[in-house]
């Protein structure tokens, strides 16, 4: 009789432990996100908030949208792709889960310099950008691949300034690397997103490019076709939540309704 009671107690204990562990096991769900480098500060904050609310984890890989798109095309195990360009999202259209793509954010293109005491300039076709560079270089993301570089080259071309500075552009793998060159005073000027400039204390914005000088800056997001994460859809929805919106806007992004 005592033995039967003891065995019953053991079973009950295991059941209790199993029930207690169930939420912990559910909390172990993970989503792998490939995201444009310009999203780093805001998306890190958003992912931390989501994790605190749900117990789940977002593992985020940041790089230029072009590099991330190519990795997805080659079968990299991403659950969600957030691009800084509709073109690079279009390039992986066949690798996306149907019906999940949405436009999340907008941004602004700016001209930056090192430090915080530079005089502002008007960015138009009369800007002597070459003269401002002197013997230095203009830091930009890859102008034929990375969205920030593509937008920047388009803007300079539209304003008739590209030919004067083309030979003096220091191209980087992503926009945050271009930002770092100016922050370290290794390049006197750079073209980045307004949100990047706001994230770095050692640079200042001296001018804003006219919106009509380049294609609209749009950040689309989608779940990949190969995603097996049970929380991918939940995280994608969270990126458009009120909690995320407050962070996006605090970091300088425009939230697309």
UniProtKB/TrEMBL annotation:
<dbReference type="InterPro" id="IPR005950">
    <property type="entry name" value="ModA"/>
</dbReference>
<dbReference type="GO" id="GO:0030973">
    <property type="term" value="F:molybdate ion binding"/>
</dbReference>
<comment type="similarity">
    <text>Belongs to the bacterial solute-binding protein ModA family.</text>
</comment>
<dbReference type="Pfam" id="PF13531">
    <property type="entry name" value="SBP_bac_11"/>
</dbReference>
<dbReference type="GO" id="GO:0015689">
    <property type="term" value="P:molybdate ion transport"/>
</dbReference>
<dbReference type="GO" id="GO:0046872">
    <property type="term" value="F:metal ion binding"/>
</dbReference>
<dbReference type="GO" id="GO:1901359">
    <property type="term" value="F:tungstate binding"/>
</dbReference>
<feature type="binding site">
    <location>
        <position position="175"/>
    </location>
    <ligand>
        <name>molybdate</name>
    </ligand>
</feature>
<keyword id="KW-0479">Metal-binding</keyword>
<dbReference type="InterPro" id="IPR050682">
    <property type="entry name" value="ModA/WtpA"/>
</dbReference>
<feature type="binding site">
    <location>
        <position position="38"/>
    </location>
    <ligand>
        <name>molybdate</name>
    </ligand>
</feature>
<keyword id="KW-0732">Signal</keyword>
<keyword id="KW-0500">Molybdenum</keyword>
<feature type="signal peptide">
    <location>
        <begin position="1"/>
        <end position="28"/>
    </location>
</feature>
<feature type="binding site">
    <location>
        <position position="193"/>
    </location>
    <ligand>
        <name>molybdate</name>
    </ligand>
</feature>
<feature type="binding site">
    <location>
        <position position="65"/>
    </location>
    <ligand>
        <name>molybdate</name>
    </ligand>
</feature>
<dbReference type="GO" id="GO:0030288">
    <property type="term" value="C:outer membrane-bounded periplasmic space"/>
</dbReference>
<protein>
    <submittedName>
        <fullName>Molybdate ABC transporter substrate-binding protein</fullName>
    </submittedName>
</protein>
<feature type="binding site">
    <location>
        <position position="148"/>
    </location>
    <ligand>
        <name>molybdate</name>
    </ligand>
</feature>
<comment type="subunit">
    <text>The complex is composed of two ATP-binding proteins (ModC), two transmembrane proteins (ModB) and a solute-binding protein (ModA).</text>
</comment>
């Amino acid at each position: 009789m005592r033995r039967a009671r003891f065995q019953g107690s053991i079973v009950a204990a295991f059941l209790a432990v199993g029930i207690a562990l169930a939420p912990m096991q559910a909390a172990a769900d993970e989503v792998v996100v490939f995201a444009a480098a310009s999203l780093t500060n805001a998306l890190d904050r958003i992912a931390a908030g989501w994790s605190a609310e749900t117990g789940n984890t977002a593992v985020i890989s940041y790089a230029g949208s072009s590099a991330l798109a190519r990795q997805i095309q080659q079968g990299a195990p991403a659950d969600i792709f957030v691009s800084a360009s509709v073109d690079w999202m279009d390039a992986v259209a066949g690798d996306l889960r149907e019906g999940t793509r949405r436009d999340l954010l907008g941004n602004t293109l700016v001209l930056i310099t090192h430090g915080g005491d530079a005089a502002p300039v008007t960015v138009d076709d009369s800007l002597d950008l070459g003269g401002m560079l002197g013997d230095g270089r203009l830091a930009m993301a890859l102008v034929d691949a990375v969205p920030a570089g593509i937008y920047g080259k388009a803007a300079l071309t539209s304003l008739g300034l590209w030919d004067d500075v083309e030979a003096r552009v220091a191209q980087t793998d992503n926009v945050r690397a271009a930002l770092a060159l100016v922050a370290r005073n290794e390049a006197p000027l750079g073209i980045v997103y307004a949100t990047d400039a706001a994230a770095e204390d050692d640079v200042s914005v001296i001018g804003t490019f006219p919106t009509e000088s380049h294609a609209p800056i749009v950040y689309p997001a989608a779940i990949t076709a190969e995603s097996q994460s049970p929380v991918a859809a939940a995280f994608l929805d969270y990126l458009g939540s009120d909690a995320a919106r407050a962070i996006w806007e605090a970091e300088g992004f425009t939230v697309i309704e």
